[in-house]
Specification:
Blueprint (H helix, E strand, L loop, with lengths): L4 H6 L7 E4 L8 E5 L5 E9 L2 E10 L4 H16 L4 H14 L3 H14 L11 H19 L9 H14 L2 H20 L30 H13 L4 H13 L3 H5 L6 E2 L4 E4 L10 E4 L2 H14 L18 H11 L22 H15 L3 H8 L6 H6 L5 H22 L1
Antiparallel strand pairs: 1-2, 2-3, 3-4, 5-6, 6-7
Helix pairs in contact: 4-5, 4-7, 5-7, 6-7, 8-9, 9-11, 9-13, 13-14
Amino acid sequence: MITTDRQLKALKPKGTVYWESVLSPHGGGLAIRVQPTGSKAWYYRYRFNGKQDTYSLGRYPSVGLQDARESHGEAVTLHTQGINPKHAQRDEKARNESAWTMAELFELWLQSYAKTPTVRTKRTPSPLVVEQACWRWGHYLKERVGTLLVKNVDARTVKSTISKIAGTQSRNQASKCLTLLRAMLAYAEAHGQIDTNPAQGIQPGQLGATKSAPRDRVLSLAEIERLWDAIENANLDASAAAALKLLILTGQRRGELLKAKWQDIDLDSASWTLPAITTKSRREHTVYLSSSAVDLLREQQAVTGNLNYVFESQRASGQPIGDASLTTAIARLQGRKLAKQNMNAPLADMPRFSVHDLRRSFATGLLKHFGTAPYVVEQMLNHAPTDRLIETYQRHDYAREQREAWQAWGQLVLNRKENDA
């Protein structure tokens, strides 16, 4: 009987296949088979339902003596439980072949997510929301967990992944990544890939993945005028400059504005219709353009000609400029594009603000300067009603009030700037 690795190495091939028993702390049945070619392989030899059978444990020396004994112990445990180790191995192989990787899970989950109405809104997620999920997966999660088998992802894996994102990249995005993983793994649980969702019950605060505090930065009218002048005088990309101005005048979401197409804009009737498929709320939305906005768009149309998008990219033909273009433009105007702030930038002395703060500033400006009713402002921003009863029964769109408010805001921004000049 073989008891040491030295004895294993000393085994020589013979003219025929032969077997040698190997001592194991888990009982009998562990053996090594030696081929005439000299190759050696481990086996567990046992009887099951009265018949002799063998179960492969790997080749020697890739599988050493200690590992073979451990595998033998696992096989013996299965045997004592009335399970044929060979069948268990076959079933495990089948499970592995049908097991999803996390990357496969994301693609399958995304297809389902994109066409499944949410519990709250009863609508499918907007393309913008789906796009954000794709970006979050690709930017934060794919490299970290994409190749892992879903069945091997446990709570420790989830916690480690989210903690690293929170510690090295973004605490706010880490919280959103946890939400994404929880949804993906719930889908995997529903489809039998895992028994329980390992992300369920994990709190982002325990991992340093906290949601950022709601922003409250509002640009005053004087700051908006400074920003407008800076946009005009800086050497910004023409489409980015025009988009920033239109954000100031309309208060719309950046992603929805950048996807605007000329076919949806009627300059003669001063209206811009956002198709439901492009909006976050999944509702068609009409922006009643002020004369200032119409003039701006006519100038932009003279630049773009017959292009599809209002804010066409110069780098990617047939595509609009990206969201990052506006972030970069604002950072440049504030002198924040480089690691060290450029205090000579036109807005370097202004308290920091983001692109989204322009939307908040627009809404606040309407309330402050014109006393526009909050429900009208909500319509102008295309916010989904928080009250389901109102959404169901209140269908008046306050078109006249919206048009008057947009026109008044455009006049205030441009006329005051011209008067100051």
